[in-house]
């Protein structure tokens, strides 16, 4: 029995007039019923069947914010296929660069079909992307269908793929079974004490695991209406989240840390709304900061936000979503302690370098049922409580592996444990996440591998090959990490430096949709290498910051 798809089908049949989603688009709200969802699912599933697609084939979905997002995803599953949401470019991105960067990704996935709309298809063709080599399902041309008999895959089959952030050609596909998904949704719903009266309100895109699992699949599986805003609209008008909460009596929402700061900085006091219905604002997807919670609570306490509503979650696609969650009946704790380290000057130094003083560590709760956490040293040995090491996980909803990447799967999953590359410790049973052990960069709640951005700059051909470094710098005013790129120029480059900076910036924005705070061109020999000949990210970050401080000091002298 496929519990996920059976639950959806049962809801469609037993409560056809009930609301499954309040879809917000600009200044309009459309209530989508279960019968609406059922009709659209059947239409998508029949379109897949008419193409005679292979059972278990991967179907990327390239759709912007529109009601067919939900039915395309579930309809593909009803047809025995494996859907995966993909982002479309924003208005800030150059479509030509963005779509051209998908060549490697599509070649790796080898889609059985692609779901998209006519506008997106036009953009892809204009960019020269060989999109027509794949079977295409145009949303505008899908015809209504009735009486479709779903082809339910086995519980052990892959339900869908989640793809990592990063450059589109190098995204990792996380394959998740139906059993892992439903086990996760049951366990997380229990921790949240999810009830029929709950209303989840979200602006998160569905290609992000936080938006897909917590804000779409969780309420869909449990039969709870959810409210969904367009993420581009939210960034431009962040107050819309609060308006939606007030209008629909929202009780739960998930936000990356930067979104709390964005709301504090952008929402004015002119017209308050009632946020007293909220049980939890859950901080997730990047290091959670107590200072951010304090600012958010001080700013919106008068709007009805209670201290207990400020919560934290540690999550990742490799475990479907949630690993640990703080208790919803009390605010998360912040310990004034310095965790022990079995490697003095080693892993603790990583903590100090990336996150400053260790005196304000914010816990992200205890593992939910079905997942086990172990803190490991460099030799994969368990460490005692309070020691800093790599967070390793195992449990009922661990992913099956990275799609068509056996070497990375073997590297990360060892003896049944998934090694997260996150640095953390356990104190009093609570997990504290301290940083990263590799070159993952976190900007605006999204993950980017530094080497991928560096490769992107190298591929442009105007800087010295292999002499580029990407890192983040904490912006105290914006309360967020900024992306910094430093690259050595070639001798006699013959290109205007200002134009080259613009070109590099446009390429990064158009490919991965993150705006660098600074693209710094430096002379050959500027970048520092390690003794093994590798570019040292930490040393170059320090050198950059020192030079910037000196420069800014002179500027203000």
Helices and strands in order:
Layout: H1 3-14, E1 19-25, E2 28-33, H2 34-50, E3 58-62, H3 68-78, E4 82-86, H4 95-100, H5 103-109, E5 114-116, H6 118-127, E6 136-138, E7 158-163, E8 173-177, H7 178-192, E9 200-202, H8 209-222, E10 226-228, H9 231-236, H10 239-248, E11 252-255, H11 257-266, E12 280-283, H12 290-300, E13 310-315, E14 322-325, E15 334-335, E16 340-341, H13 347-355, E17 361-362, E18 366-367, E19 371-376, E20 387-395, E21 401-402, H14 406-412, E22 413-414, E23 417-427, E24 430-436, E25 440-443, E26 446-449, H15 450-459, E27 463-475, E28 480-489, H16 497-512, E29 516-522, H17 537-555
Parallel strand pairs: 1-10, 3-4, 3-5, 5-6, 9-10, 11-12, 12-13, 16-20, 28-29
Antiparallel strand pairs: 1-2, 7-8, 8-21, 13-14, 14-18, 15-17, 19-20, 20-23, 22-23, 23-24, 25-26, 27-28
Helix pairs in contact: 1-2, 2-3, 11-12
Strand content: 25-35%
Shape: globular
- Count of DSSP helices? 17
Number of strands: 29
CATH class of the domain at 1-5 and 31-157: Alpha Beta
Helix content: 25-40%
Question: What CATH architecture label of the domain at 1-5 and 31-157 applies?
Answer: 3-Layer(aba) Sandwich
What do we call the CATH topology of the domain at 1-5 and 31-157?
Answer: Rossmann fold
Largest sheet: 6 strands, mixed
Oligomeric state of shown chains: single chain
């Amino acid at each position: 029995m496929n519990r996920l798809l059976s639950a959806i089908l049962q809801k469609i049949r037993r409560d056809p007039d009930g609301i499954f989603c309040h879809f917000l688009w600009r200044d309009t709200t459309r209530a989508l019923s279960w019968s609406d969802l059922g009709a659209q699912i059947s239409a998508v599933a029949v379109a897949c069947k008419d193409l005679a697609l292979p059972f278990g084939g991967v179907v990327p979905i390239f759709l912007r914010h529109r009601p067919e997002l939900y039915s395309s995803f579930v309809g593909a599953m009803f047809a025995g296929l494996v859907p995966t949401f993909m982002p479309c470019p924003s208005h800030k991105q150059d479509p030509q660069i963005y779509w051209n960067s998908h060549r490697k990704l599509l070649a790796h996935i080898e889609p059985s079909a692609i779901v998209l709309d006519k506008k997106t298809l036009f953009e892809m063709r204009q960019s020269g992307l060989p999109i027509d080599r794949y079977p295409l399902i145009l949303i505008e041309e899908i015809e209504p269908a009735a009486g479709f008999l779903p082809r339910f895959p086995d519980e052990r089959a892959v339900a869908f793929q989640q793809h990592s952030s990063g450059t589109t050609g190098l995204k990792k596909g996380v394959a998740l079974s139906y059993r892992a998904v439903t086990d996760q949704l049951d366990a997380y719903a229990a921790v949240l004490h999810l009830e029929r009266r709950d209303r989840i309100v979200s602006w998160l895109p569905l290609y992000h695991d936080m938006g897909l699992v917590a804000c779409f699949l969780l309420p869909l599986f449990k039969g709870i209406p959810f409210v969904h805003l367009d993420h581009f609209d939210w960034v431009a008008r962040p107050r819309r989240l609060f308006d939606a909460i007030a209008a629909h009596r929202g009780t739960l929402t998930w936000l990356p840390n930067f979104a709390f700061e964005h709301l504090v900085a952008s929402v004015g006091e002119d017209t308050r709304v009632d946020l007293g219905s909220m049980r939890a604002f859950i901080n997730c997807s990047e290091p959670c900061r107590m200072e951010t919670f304090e600012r958010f609570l001080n700013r919106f306490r008068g709007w009805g936000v209670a201290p207990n509503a400020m919560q934290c979650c540690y999550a990742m696609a490799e475990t479907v979503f949630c690993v640990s969650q703080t208790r919803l009946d009390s605010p998360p704790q912040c310990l004034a302690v310095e965790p022990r380290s079995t490697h003095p000057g080693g892993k603790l130094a990583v903590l100090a370098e990336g996150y400053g003083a260790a005196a304000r560590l914010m816990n992200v709760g205890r593992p939910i049922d079905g997942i086990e956490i172990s803190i490991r040293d460099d030799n994969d040995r368990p460490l005692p409580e309070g020691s800093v090491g790599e967070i390793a996980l195992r449990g009922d909803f661990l992913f099956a592996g990275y799609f068509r990447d056996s070497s990375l799967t073997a590297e990360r999953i060892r003896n049944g444990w998934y090694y997260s590359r996150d640095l953390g410790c356990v104190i009093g049973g609570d997990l504290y996440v301290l940083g990263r052990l590799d070159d993952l960069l976190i900007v605006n709640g999204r993950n980017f591998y530094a080497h991928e951005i560096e490769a992107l700059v190298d591929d442009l051909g105007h800087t010295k090959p292999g002499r580029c470094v990407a890192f983040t710098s904490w912006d105290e005013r914006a309360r967020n990490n900024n992306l910094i790129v430093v690259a050595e120029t070639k001798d006699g480059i013959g290109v205007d430096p200002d134009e080259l900076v613009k070109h590099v910036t446009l390429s990064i924005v158009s490919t991965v949709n993150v705006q660098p705070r600074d693209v710094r061109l430096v002379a050959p020999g500027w970048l520092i290498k390690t003794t093994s000949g590798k570019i040292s990210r930490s040393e170059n970050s320090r050198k950059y910051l020192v030079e910037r401080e000196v420069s800014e000091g002179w500027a203000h002298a």
